[in-house]
Amino acid sequence: SDKPLTVLSVVDSTNTYLKLKQSAHRNGAACLAEAQTAGRGRQGRKWQSPFGASLYLSMYWTFSGGYQAIGGLSLMIGVAVVEALNRLGVEGLQLKWPNDIYLDGKKLGGVLVEVEGQIHDQSHCIVGVGLNIRLPDLVREEIDQPYTDLAQHVTRLPDRNLLAAAVLDELQENLIRFEHEGLAAFLPRWEALNLFKARKIKMLCGSNHFEGVCLGVNKDGALLVRLPDGVKAFYGGEVSVRSA
Ligand code: ATP
Ligand code: BTN
Questions:
Q1: Residue closest by Cα to atom 13 of ligand 1
Q2: Where are the domains of the chain?
């Protein structure tokens, strides 16, 4: 296609690269790197990004509408990544609200959606995906939660270029669909992949904790939790979920 795709050896972060590169501010423009020196997760957390061991990619997209138009965008991206992996024969994936990709109960990858600016009622978004293929031992010690990589689960690793192409394809296709139909088109699929479905969870919001049962998500992508005093909707932002 005519969408610019930039392939880099090393970059600070593919998200930052797209953010700063004006000429890539077109729907579907993408950046792919072999390594990141400052890969990011949510809230400034670090994303381990060693050379050649994973997939690090980002795509640019502008939506008309403000925040309400992009609620749940990271959930849809998770679905797109799972579909790309399914296409290549990797099964058993799950999604942890709001932005993690899980395999065998451990973190395999993550999604980072950043909104560049909301001008004239448009939302300029950079969606980033990190997916572990084969992490070197050195990096493993740096990750402070259960994680995994594809190498531990599949006997034949998919070719990294094919994997990148599949993810980019699914992203573009699903972004177009999201633009027209919103999150609703992806909700049944997301619910089927929900790691915490009907399980007891703990919500961490700053110094506040809530314990309840995970019911699913609403049409804005908020997580619905049954608390002792009723059902509460939690929005992305500063909230983290753990199993209780
Ligand atoms: P939340 O539930 O709030 O998303 P989180 O701990 O998953 O919590 P994120 O910001 O989504 O936080 O992801 C960053 C975290 O992911 C890091 O703090 C680290 O624990 C973990 N991490 C970092 N690099 C990797 C990697 N390559 N693979 C798996 N996990 C990683
Ligand atoms: C998370 O779990 O918090 C999300 C991790 C997202 C990592 C990807 S790797 C490509 C893109 N560039 C970044 O700096 N982060 C995302």
A1: 41
A2: 5-193, 200-243
Alpha-carbon span 165 to 167, nearest angstrom:
6
Helices and strands, counts by H and E, the chain: 6, 12
Q: Is the CB of 42 under 6 A from ligand 2?
A: yes
Of ligand 1's listed atoms, the one at least distance from the Cα of 144 is 20
Q: Give the mutation target among 36, 45, 77, 138 for probing the ligand 1 site: most ligand atoms within 8 A of CB.
A: 45
- Ligand 1 neighbour 143 (Cβ under 6 A): yes
**At 163, which amino acid appears?**
L
- Fold match between domain 5-193 and domain 200-243: no
Looking at the CA of 132, which ligand is closest? Answer: 1
Do the interacting molecules here have an ipTM over 0.85? yes
* Cα–Cα dist 82/79, whole Å: 5
Nearest to 60 by CA among 2, 7, 34, 21: 21
The reply to whether CATH 2.30.30.100 applies to domain 200-243 is yes
Ligand 2 within 6 A of CB of 58: yes
**Alpha-carbon distances, residue 34 vs 106, 108, 129, 219 (angstroms):** 23, 17, 13, 36
pLDDT in tens, 89-110: 999 999 999 999 999 999 999 9
CATH 3.40.30.10 corresponds to the domain 5-193? no
CA of 229 to the centre of ligand 1 (A): 31
pLDDT tens per residue, range 55-89: 999 999 999 988 788 889 999 999 999 999 999 99
